[in-house]
């Protein structure tokens, strides 16, 4: 049974590309936020790795990958030792090159809403859905979602100080694409920050500081991995354990800005033992899907993209009767019947 949970902030930019903090400062910020690992994905460079920044820093496991491609088709690569050339037009070449190095990767932001305040409103979408060989996709990229809210300076400022008023839910297009892909194969979902620690002073001259600073981002959209036993003290072993959990989809995505996602569990309980997120189970085993939530939420069971049960509670269960991927979403209740996206599981695949 996967009984330990570790929290990571993935897809972070440091001063090695267009971020505003060093890897040492980012690790310290992650430590203050109380998370366990960070994934550094600077554009087109592994300088962080080559200059020895990977390892334990402030009790945080610093993992250095990279973000590949320019105008479209951004790909997050992990566990590679050499830079992979951009191939924006043919991202399959990038995916294959990462795999040949023994690495793995994720589609960084399938869809975005561009902001006129950022890159002239450009949305850095993924365009080539005929690719294969990638591990998964980021269903919730905090920076992309934020850009969609900051449609002009007054709105950007307003939401910066009233984050609760912003619409931070994952994009419907990204969720629909994930459900569509899950009909054909396993696709691991991760959540990412894509944080750059953008300097507001440079932007406005009105307020000082970073929007959003790295510690803040490490308290927002994270990927929570589940391990069998504790994260090893040896760094290489810890890195292996984290990467294995991500590759297998032994993880879930949560936004802890409003309610901490730590403690969420989703598994199947067949007669023969537990089936975890990311794994395969058999309907012949009469499984029951079980959800435990750290707080009261709307718990939705989703089978092949369709809601099959919804309940407002701290726990729920569902008896599946047809094959396919089963995943759950938790939405926090808000006043006037509104909800706020909170937690997304990876699927359990039943045959
Ligand atoms: Zn990107
Ligand atoms: Zn990025």
Automatic annotation (TrEMBL):
<dbReference type="Pfam" id="PF02811">
    <property type="entry name" value="PHP"/>
</dbReference>
<dbReference type="InterPro" id="IPR052018">
    <property type="entry name" value="PHP_domain"/>
</dbReference>
<feature type="domain" description="Polymerase/histidinol phosphatase N-terminal">
    <location>
        <begin position="8"/>
        <end position="72"/>
    </location>
</feature>
<dbReference type="GO" id="GO:0004534">
    <property type="term" value="F:5'-3' RNA exonuclease activity"/>
</dbReference>
<dbReference type="InterPro" id="IPR003141">
    <property type="entry name" value="Pol/His_phosphatase_N"/>
</dbReference>
<dbReference type="InterPro" id="IPR004013">
    <property type="entry name" value="PHP_dom"/>
</dbReference>
<dbReference type="GO" id="GO:0035312">
    <property type="term" value="F:5'-3' DNA exonuclease activity"/>
</dbReference>
<protein>
    <submittedName>
        <fullName>PHP domain-containing protein</fullName>
    </submittedName>
</protein>
<dbReference type="InterPro" id="IPR016195">
    <property type="entry name" value="Pol/histidinol_Pase-like"/>
</dbReference>
């Amino acid at each position: 049974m996967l009984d330990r949970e570790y929290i990571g902030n993935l897809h972070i930019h440091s001063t090695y590309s267009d971020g505003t903090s060093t890897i040492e400062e980012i690790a310290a910020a992650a430590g203050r936020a109380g998370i366990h690992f960070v994934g550094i994905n600077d554009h087109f460079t592994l300088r962080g790795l080559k200059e020895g920044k990977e390892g334990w820093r402030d009790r945080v496991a610093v993992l250095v990958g990279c973000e590949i491609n320019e105008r479209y088709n951004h790909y997050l690569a992990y566990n590679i030792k050499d830079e992979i050339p951009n191939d924006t037009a043919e991202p399959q070449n990038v995916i294959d090159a990462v795999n040949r190095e023994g690495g793995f990767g994720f589609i960084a932001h399938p869809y975005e809403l561009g902001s006129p305040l950022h890159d002239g409103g450009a949305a850095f979408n993924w365009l080539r859905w005929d690719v294969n060989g990638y591990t998964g996709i980021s269903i919730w990229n905090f920076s992309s979602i934020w850009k969609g809210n900051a449609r002009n300076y007054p709105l950007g400022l307003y939401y910066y100080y009233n984050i609760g008023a912003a619409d931070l839910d994952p994009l419907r297009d990204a969720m629909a694409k994930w459900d569509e892909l899950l009909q054909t194969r396993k696709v691991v979902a991760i959540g990412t920050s894509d944080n750059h620690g953008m300097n507001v002073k440079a932007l406005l001259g009105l307020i000082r500081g970073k929007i959003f600073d790295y510690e803040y981002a490490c308290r927002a959209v994270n990927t929570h991995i589940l391990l069998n036993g504790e994260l090893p003290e040896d760094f290489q072993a810890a890195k292996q354990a984290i990467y294995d959990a991500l590759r297998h989809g032994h993880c879930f995505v949560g936004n802890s800005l409003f309610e901490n996602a730590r403690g969420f569990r989703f598994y199947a309980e067949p007669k023969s033992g537990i089936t975890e997120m990311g794994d395969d189970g058999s309907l012949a085993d009469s499984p029951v899907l079980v959800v435990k939530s750290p707080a009261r939420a709307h718990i939705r069971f989703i089978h092949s993209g369709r809601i099959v049960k919804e309940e407002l509670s701290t726990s729920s269960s569902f008896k599946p009767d047809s094959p396919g991927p089963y995943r759950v979403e938790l939405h926090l209740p808000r006043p006037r019947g509104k909800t706020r996206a909170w937690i997304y599981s990876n699927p359990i695949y039943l045959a």
